[in-house]
């Protein structure tokens, strides 16, 4: 039976959640890149032997976030803030006033 090391095994996932929430709150345009950096950085650092179990577990804990972001990007289902800004006024153009052609007799 293995034992749970509090810092690497519990601290790393909590760090990933904290970084994801903070970046999503303050820099939403860079949130996707932060997940990629945590995953790739964690795995490369583990491969190079840097950072120990804590850094390796950051890569492992952020992998589901990265996989979800890649899936959404490939599927095309992710809604960006840019697509929300392009809302047209269908069916009437913006210059037409409501009841502009109504005449009282």
What does this structure look like?
- It is a single chain.
- The protein has a domain at 6-73.
- The protein is rod-shaped.
- α1 packs across α3.
- The longest helix has 24 residues, at 52-75.
- It has four helices and no strands.
- With 105 residues, the protein is an all-alpha fold.
- Helices cover 65% and strands 0% of the residues.
- The N and C termini lie far apart (90 Å).
Q: What is the general shape?
A: rod-shaped
Give the percentage of residues in beta strands.
under 5%
Helix and strand content put the structural class at: mainly alpha
Largest β-sheet summary: none
Radius of gyration: 23 Å
* Low-confidence sequence ranges: none
Helices and strands, with pairings:
Blueprint lengths: L5 H21 L4 H18 L3 H24 L5 H5 L20
What is the compact description of this entry?
With 105 residues, the protein is mostly helical. Helix content is 65%, strand content 0%. Helix 1 crosses helix 3 and helix 2 (31-48) packs across helix 3 (52-75).
């Amino acid at each position: 039976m293995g034992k749970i090391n509090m810092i690497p095994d519990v601290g790393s996932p909590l760090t990933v959640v904290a970084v994801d929430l903070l970046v999503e709150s303050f820099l939403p345009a860079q949130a996707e890149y932060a997940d990629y950096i945590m995953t790739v950085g964690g795995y490369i650092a583990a491969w190079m032997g840097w950072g120990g179990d804590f850094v390796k577990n950051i890569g492992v804990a952020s992998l589901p976030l990265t996989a979800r972001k890649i899936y959404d990007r490939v599927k095309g289902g992710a809604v960006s803030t840019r697509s929300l800004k392009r809302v047209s006024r269908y069916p009437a153009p913006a210059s037409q006033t409501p009841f502009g052609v109504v005449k009282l007799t």
